[in-house]
Amino acid sequence: MAEVGMTDIIAKLARDPDSEVSHQACGVIANIAERHGNKIAMVEQGIIHHLQFSMLSKSIPVLRESIRAFANLSSVIENTPCIVSSGVLGHLIDALNSPDTLCRRFATLAMSNLASTDDSKIRIIREQGILPLISIVRQTEKNQIDKQSQQHAMSCLANLASCASCHENLLDSGCAGLSMNYIKSSDLNLRTNALLCISNFASSNKTHAILEKCNIQELIKNLECTDRLVQLRAVTSLRGLSTNPSCRERIIS
Asked: Virtual CA dihedral for 110, 210, 219, 144, nearest 10 degrees?
């Protein structure tokens, strides 16, 4: 469908006042946006304009499919500026607090994808996106934990930490300590992203005063992990910290 142009009828049905019609139409859009070759063309043809309206729906199924569409469309960096500038970012952040598990999961995935440019990272900070992401990572009730949402949220925080302009807000929100809590997680995806977050912080001398308080021994233990990406993130973190005299002594000891 996308190869010959997204038909107006499907796009307009995403805005239909009948929530079931809108739900199904948004599902079609989300499915088509799964194919890599369709993503940029769909944005160029104006699909974001139609999805903006469906994001205002009070229907959870409509919202779920609309968010899934944005999660798929945002997986190519070329679409990031259009999505962020469309004004939908605030709605995606609101969806992080949704009572619906899939809404939260798709929203965290979209946020992780969108945190791909310095401009979008700063916009996420300005739109108060940090605390909802941290809340999702911190899920403690076992019967409420959605591991995929946790992974995506931690990935988004790690991406945000790659921008030095975001460090102050992230550190004030307790992101460094949160990341350290998960570098011994049995979930390798979660652990890898937590280590990436620490390594991004460690790349800046300005953050070392806070990271000095972290458990460096846990970072060192990750050097012995059989997972090569975990090893890489851990040694990258230690490289950054080893530029600080106090941290260097702790690494040696």
From this structure: -40
Report yes or no: 133 and 96 within 8 Å, Cβ to Cβ. yes
Cβ contact 39:75 at 8 Å: yes
149-197 pLDDT, tens digit each: 999 999 999 999 999 999 999 999 999 889 999 998 999 999 999 999 9
Render pLDDT for 225-242 as a digit per residue (tens, 0 to 9): 999 999 999 999 889 888
Q: Among the residues of 101-244, which ranges form H helices? A: 101-114, 118-126, 130-137, 147-160, 167-172, 175-181, 188-202, 208-211, 216-221, 228-241
Burial tier of 206 (Cβ tally within 10 Å: 0-12, 13-18, 19+) = exposed
- Evaluate whether 108 touches 129 at the Cβ level (below 8 Å): no
Under DSSP, the state recorded for 229 is: H
Alpha-carbon gap, residue 210 to 108, rounded angstroms: 27
Extract the tokens encoding 12. Answer: 């307009």
CA distance 243 to 239: 7
Residue with tokens 């769909």: 42
Q: How confident is the model at residue 212 (pLDDT cuts 50, 70, 90)?
A: low
